[in-house]
Fold:
Amino acid sequence: MRGLAKVDRTAGAMELIERDRPTPAADEALVEVEYAGLCGSDAGIYEFESAFERMELPNVIGHEYCGTVVDVGDDVTEFAHGDRVVERPIRGCGECYQCRIGEENVCQNAVITGVDHDGAYEQYIAVPESALHPVPDDVKSEHAAVVEPTSIAARAVIENSEVGPGDRVLVEGPGPIGQLTAQVARAQGGDVVVSGVGQDTEYRLPLARELGFETVTVGEEMAAKRDEVTDGVGYDVVFDTTGHPSGLTTAVDEVRKGGQIVLVGQTGETTMPYSPLVRSEIDLQCSYASMYEDFERSLRMLRSGAVDAQTFTDDRFSLLDADEAFEAFVNGETVKPVFDVSELYE
Ligand SMILES: [Zn+2]
Ligand SMILES: [Zn+2]
Structure:
């Protein structure tokens, strides 16, 4: 079978390679992948950022997907042939201290599908049963493919933020995690503004408006928008999903005294005076990855329409010309490409 793999330690360097169809181990299901999304970390692999230097190449990438179980190992009890499933791709070892106390998302030895072993940009993938979630019949596969990024947003908002009804919320960054965080924060009762930079004015900010959010462009407009939306007080909660060092310093400017900043994007390095944070008693909270419950909630939000996958996903791209999708993503010309993986079937 053909899979789209990272083949070399340079920018780009994605190729279709030949792989054998995997045989599921006793505790695994063999899943035929139907649809798979492209996310910020896939783009990070494409550009070969330092976080991915540990990868052994070639490695088939892709970690957010929906597929159908076609075979199961002898010990599998919860899933059977024909079940539609999604995978929790960031998984703990089950043995370290964090796993034992229920903090699997910050496991010391976590493995990630599509990074540490072959991923979902190919026809078949073998997955431990414990990492699978059933997809409700009325959620389309191309929509279920985005449950994984939705779960990241669900964790950031529901587990790690204080957003409640009537709260004024700023989501910095209109990329995939930002657009999902905005939707989950709205479902939680927040009144949400989404911010972006100049490059976002063509596709990403208009998409946020289509999803029903007010938007603002970083720069002079920010203060006026903040004053208008919050009567000059500042936002109750600011989520930084930008993945850019300026995201944190901007958040400090935008949050109200006594408010909360939730860091979701991985922002590199910045320097800033931090005594204003202390004197304003800012709650600085991080959110990383997701767990079982975040997945279950996300499937229900996709089902109810609280997260609008139809509007959010972009089906214009093909794994047969993946560079086009990656370049568009990096340039902010799309938010969530979802590939029809059956184009790779032979
Ligand atoms: Zn992802
Ligand atoms: Zn662990």
Notes: Residues 39, 41, 63-64, 148-149 surround zinc ion (ligand 1) (CB under 6 Å). The chain has a mean pLDDT of 96. The chain is about 30% helix and 25% strand. The radius of gyration is 20 Å.
